[in-house]
Specification:
17% strand; 4-stranded mixed sheet; 437 residues; 14 strands; Rossmann fold; Type Iii Antifreeze Protein Isoform Hplc 12
């Protein structure tokens, strides 16, 4: 609770924290908009595939020409990760393969790493985080994004002596959304394609939010960071509002929907008939905690916590997350405290590519949010048992045999040739699943 004071003191004693940014899209832009009013922090370099667009974006968010001129802006990520004046690298490209390469380079260069790129984190983040820890560096999920905020809630509940029954986030979900494509996505958001284009909205990215893939990725990240369990058949997306979180997000044995205590789950803001849930949590995060004694359960009731009918399960939630506007918290924690705002400690959840429609041999998969596959959350050990094709590797690869709609694709269903670095990190991550028993 003293990050502001620590940052101010750091600036006075040793100068500002040097930050290098790889990827200057929406998430990064929200962070950059806050930088001028954040003490003890300086952006020294930005790498983006479109440097001129990055410069223009800085002007759009209110940076003066003088401030823009102080930042080295170019295309090459190596020009960021190798700089002596960079203390922390923020990887915000969204490309899982590029993200792993950039993260590896940052750690090799002795930089703390904030991995906004949750796609990379789920594909092989556990191996990268292990490398960082071995060299005294911090690998961190990005505060402001839902996985890190969930990890914070889980840590708080455990530190306070509660058992965590469930943790997760809200989203807008209906079963039919799994088949959504970039051509159909905007109707679900109540927009026309023209309106979305005018707003600069990427149809494939927004489709990933809708078709269940992003929820699977984020819940895998939470499971891997917090040691929570993953539903055997994938996320259930139960429709529930904030008042009934504790009733629904508890084990089946006591009237809920979970296999057991200690699970991740994403909840829907829509009933299955499409009607809106009252007091939904579409933009927020939650934790359901379990009292470990009767006295604590009595206190839940006495202080007005939304509890279940047993009185032993209660929920806390945060209704909103502010994306990149909060990202600086991760930077401060890494440098000033040597702490991550959530980081993978094992391989517990994986995201498998599932055919959106009947696919034919010879078709090229187009990855997260596209026309061909969506991502389903699976327990890591089950994913390995069926040799599931990770969603992060399901782009620009060709099917070698037909696959029916709803099929979990295997690595043997495609012509897969991963880069050696990615293959090595993925193999190390997979090896970590054995430690989970």
């Amino acid at each position: 609770m003293n990050l502001h004071a620590l940052a101010t003191a750091r600036a006075e004693s040793a100068g500002p924290i040097g930050v290098g940014l790889v990827g200057a899209g929406k998430f990064a832009s929200m962070f950059l908009a806050q930088v001028p009013t954040m003490p003890g922090l300086k952006i020294v370099a930005i790498a983006d595939l479109k440097p001129d667009a990055a410069r223009h974006r800085l002007s759009q968010i209110g940076w003066s020409n003088e401030r823009v001129a102080t930042v080295a802006i170019g295309e090459a990520a190596a020009d960021v990760t190798s700089r002596d004046d960079v203390d922390v690298v923020i990887e915000a490209t969204g490309d899982p393969l590029a993200g792993l390469a950039h993260g590896e380079a940052a750690i090799a260069a002795g930089k703390h790493l904030v991995m906004v790129n949750v796609e990379a984190d789920v594909l092989a983040g556990p191996a990268l985080a292990k490398k960082a820890r071995a060299t005294g560096l911090v690998y961190s999920l990005a505060y402001g994004d839902q996985p890190a905020l969930i990890a914070e809630q889980v840590d708080w509940a455990r530190a306070a002596g509660f058992e965590v029954a469930a943790a997760g986030k809200g989203t807008k979900y209906l079963p039919d959304y799994h088949a959504s494509t970039p051509d159909t996505v905007w109707q679900h958001y109540g927009l026309t394609a023209e309106q979305a284009q005018a707003a600069g909205m990427n149809s494939q990215m927004f489709n990933s939010f809708l078709d269940g893939t992003k929820s699977a990725i984020e819940m895998a990240a939470v499971a891997n960071a917090c040691g929570l369990g993953v539903p055997a058949g994938g996320l259930l997306f139960p429709p529930v509002g904030t008042d009934r979180l504790a009733d629904v997000l508890r084990p089946k044995a006591v009237g809920g929907v979970l296999e057991r205590d200690g699970m991740v789950e994403t909840i829907s803001s829509l009933n299955r008939d499409g009607s809106e849930i009252d007091r939904d949590l579409r933009w927020g995060v939650y934790v359901v905690m379990k009292a470990t004694n009767d006295y604590a359960a009595e206190c839940f009731a006495q202080y007005g916590l939304p509890s279940d009918d047993t009185g032993h399960y209660a929920a806390l939630y945060r209704p909103f997350h502010m994306i990149g506007l909060e990202l600086g918290i991760s930077v401060y924690c890494a440098v000033l405290r040597g702490e991550a705002t959530g980081a993978p400690t094992g391989f517990r959840g994986d995201v498998a590519a599932v055919a959106k429609r009947d696919l034919k041999a010879g078709e090229r998969l187009d990855g997260e949010g596209g026309f061909t596959v969506w991502g389903r959350l699976l327990p890591a050990q089950r994913s390995l048992a069926v040799d599931a094709l990770p969603i992060g590797l399901a782009k620009d690869v060709v099917l070698t045999r037909d696959a029916a709609a709803g099929t979990v694709l295997s690595a043997g269903d495609v012509s897969l040739t991963a880069e050696p670095l990615v293959a090595a990190l993925r193999a190390e991550t997979q090896a970590m699943a054995a430690a989970e028993g």
